[in-house]
Amino acid sequence: MAPYLSKDQTQISRRAILTPPINSHSHYGQQIPNTVGYWLISCCLMVAIMIALGGATRLTESGLSIVNWQPVTGILPPLNDKEWGALFTAYMQTPEFTKINFWMTISDFKSIYWLEYLHRLWGRLIGIVFLLPYVYFLLRGVLPRALIWRFGFLFLLGGIQGLVGWYMVRSGLVDEPSVSQYRLAGHLSLAFVIFGLLFWYSISCLTSRPPKSGFGWAQAGSFTILCCVGVTSVWGAFVAGLDAGRAYNTFPLMDGRWVPRDLLLSSPWWINFFENSAGVQFTHRVFAVGTVTLIFLFWLLAHRTPLPKAVRRATNLLALIALFQLGLGIATLLSGVAMALGILHQMGALALITAAIWVHHQNAY
């Protein structure tokens, strides 16, 4: 028979059930409901899907199919033949249609339209999924002051990302049917930054402060690795922007040489590392191999030093993902950038960034 509970005890029990769990050892000096962390993780996953959609849009050459940016009214797709006709007529005025896709019918146009539309729609959905819980948590008063401003800045970054995306698309609607590699690199880099901040704040809300390792090299090394992974990923965007991955499809040599003949073809010399396919791909290779080498040196030191077990586990994961990403990059190159491998390689970069953030988070305190 159940024990008798007084009215006050019953109310206390109900509050215990209805009150979400909290992280009592928050990084921010205040108890934070775990639901905040789960919300941020959900946004992380949505941004990851957004990055995958962006890669697919790029590889299928669908990104220039929508020639107008309508943040509010653009949420609705064409609903009748008249609206489809208007969109196709606008697309027919673009360099991509006149120089490359002049053979397309409206049915062919629809096949590239839907992926770009989904990419933009998903971006709007991320904004809603971020904003509404943010306002709710603000009204509940459960966010520390530091996070209120940081989350507000994150929402602002999301809006800026939409503008940067349209700025990138605009570069392919003027003279040449391709977007600027600089704008593409900026667009992808900002996506990685948004994802990284979301992930950092989510694990900070869901986990306690890790014990200090007492080794300054671990903190400096993990931060250096994070920076190297980020720079390598940015140069991957330059490779994508120039379609440089479809040239020099051998490894480790490029055109039968360790250093390609066309490395410094343009003048001034430094422009080759941003605008010359040989220079851009060579730079990406060097950064990739160098970053993986640095990660394995860090892994060796971590296992020769009495670091906390959590740090070692995170380092093991980082090393495994780095090795997988390097192999995936080589396979993508040898395939001439097959679509599935290209998307997987981009997501591998995101996985590597995630692991690098996790390792640095374990060493940052």
Can you give me a brief rundown of this structure?
The protein is mainly alpha-helical and 365 residues long.
Throw out a few tags for this protein:
365 residues, mainly alpha, two-stranded antiparallel ribbon, 68% helix
Structure characterization notes:
The protein is an all-alpha fold and 365 residues long. It folds into two domains: 177 residues, no CATH class; 155 residues, no CATH class. It contains twelve helices and two strands, in the order H-E-E-H-H-H-H-H-H-H-H-H-H-H. Strands 1-2 form a two-stranded antiparallel ribbon. A hairpin with an 8-residue loop joins strand 1 and strand 2. The chain starts with 6 loop residues before the first helix and ends with a helix. 36% of the residues are buried.
